[in-house]
Amino acid sequence: MRMISFIWQFGEVALAVAIAPLFAGWIAQCRAWMQNRSAPPLTLPYRVLGKLFRKDAALATDASGLFRTTPYILFGTMVLAAAIIPSLATDLPFARAADAIALIGLFATARVFLSLAAMDVGTPFGSMGARREMMIGFLAEPALLMVLFNAFLLYRTTALPSLVDGYATHHQGMDPSVIFAAVAFLMVLLAENGRIPIDNPATHLELTMIHEAMLLEYSARHLALVEWASSLKLLNYACIGFALFVPWGIATHGAMPGLDGAAMLLIAILALGVKLVFSGALLALIESLSAKLRLFRAPEYLATAFLVAVLGLLAHLLLGANVHG
Amino acid sequence: MEVFVEQGELMQQGADLPSNVECRRLCVDREQWLQTVQTLSSSAARLLSLWGADDRDRDGCFRIYAAWLLPASVLVLEHPIDDGGLGAATAPSYPGLARFFPSARRMQRALHDLLGVVAEEQERDERGWLRHGGWPDNLYPLRRDADGHQSYPVVSAAYPFVTVQGDGVHEIAVGPVHAGTIEPGHFRFSVVGEKMLRLEERLGYTHKGVARRFQELTQLEGHRLAARLSGDSAVAFSWAYCAALESVTTTPCPGRATLLRALALEHERMANHLGDIGAIGNDAGFAFGFTQFSRLKEDLLRANRSVFGARYLMDYVLPGGVAADLPQNAHSTLLNVYRDLEAGVLAMRAIYGEHAGLRDRLHETGRLGREIAEQMGALGLPARASGVACDLRADHPWAPYDKLLQKLSDKAPLWPITHPDGDVAARVQVRFDELLQCLELCRVLLEEISSPALSGPAQRSVQAALPAAAPYRLGMGLIEGWRGPVMVALETGTDGAIRRCHAHDSSWQNWPLLEYAILGNIVPDFPLINKSFNLSYSGQDG
Question: Total domain count for chain A?
Answer without folding.
Answer: 1
